[in-house]
Amino acid sequence: MAVVLAGGTGTRVGLSIPKQLIKIAGKPIIEHTIAAMQQSPLVDEILVLMA
C-alpha cells in the first residue's frame, strides 16, 4: 500500500488552488503521482489523503 499525502494550497507559488491540482504537462500533479505509484510492483493499493 502507498499513502499519498496531498494537502495544502499553492499560495507560495502564487495560486489559489490546491497544490495537488496544479497542472504539469497538462495533468494535475496528483495524476502524475498516482500513475507513478501504479507502475510500482510493490504497490497494490493507493490511499490518497487530501486536506
TrEMBL record:
GO CC term, one of those recorded: cytosol
InterPro entries attached to this UniProt entry: IspD/TarI (IPR034683), Nucleotide-diphossugar_trans (IPR029044)
Keyword Transferase: yes
Alphabetized UniProt keyword annotations: Nucleotidyltransferase, Transferase
SUPFAM superfamilies: Nucleotide-diphospho-sugar transferases (SSF53448)
MF terms (GO), sorted A to Z: cytidylyltransferase activity; glucose-1-phosphate thymidylyltransferase activity
EC number: 2.7.7.24
Keyword Transcription among record annotations: no
Name of the protein described by the UniProt record: Glucose-1-phosphate thymidylyltransferase
Organism: uncultured Friedmanniella sp
